[in-house]
Amino acid sequence: MSRSGEHWGNPGGRPGTRTGLVRVDAIGAACPVCGRRKFCSVSRDGGMVWCTREASRDERDYGYGTAWVHVLDAPVRLDPEVLRRVSLAREPGSIALRDRVYRALLDALRLDRRHRDNLRGRGLDDEQIELGGYASMPQEGRGYVARDLFETFGDDLAHVPGFYQWDDGRWAIAGYSGLLVPVRDVAGTIEALKVRLDNPPPDGGRYRFVSSSSKGGAKAVSTLHVPMFGQAIGADEIRITEGELKADVTTALSGIPTLSVPGVEAWRLGLQAAEVLRPQRVRVAFDMDRDTNPAVARAQRALVTALRGAGFRVGVESWDPTLKGVDDFYSAQRAQRAAQ
Ligand SMILES: [Zn+2]
Question: Domain range holding 107?
Answer without folding.
Answer: 95-215
